[in-house]
Write a structure and sequence with these properties.
By secondary structure, this protein is α+β, with helices and mostly antiparallel strands. The chain has one domain: Nuclear Transport Factor 2, Chain: A, CATH 3.10.450.360. Helix content is about 20%, strand content about 50%.
Amino acid sequence: MKKISAMMIAILLMRGATMEKVGRMFSGATNVIWTKDKHNVDKVYFQTKGKVTLAGFNERGHFLFSITKYQEEMLPKDILHIVKKRYHGKRIFGITEVNTMNKTAYLIMLDKASSWLHIKVLDDELTEEMVLIKG
C-alpha cells in the first residue's frame, strides 16, 4: 500500500473545503468539472438552472471570481430595468455576469438591426463598450 504524504492530505482537505464552499455558494450545481491552472487556481465549471458558470478559488479555498452566462429572464430585475429604460425595444441576446472583489459587472449583448451593442452595467451605471457590425 502506498503512503500518502502530509502534503497530499493537505491538498485533499483544501480541495474538500473548496468543494464545500462551491456547494454553499452555488447550490444546485450540476455537471461539475474541476481543473487547476498554472497559477495554482482551482477552477470549477458547472451548471445551475439556466446558467453556466466558471468560478476560481485560490489554494486556500478563498473565492476569487465567477463568470456566469445566462439569458434575459435570469437577469436581476433592477439591472433589467436600467437596460430596458435606456434601450427600450432592443432584444437582449446574452448576458455575462462577472463577480470579483465584492463587485458584480453585467456584460450584456444587445441585438440591433444591423449591429450588436455590447454594454456594461457596474454599480448601477451603464456604459457602452463596443459596437460590432453584422454581416
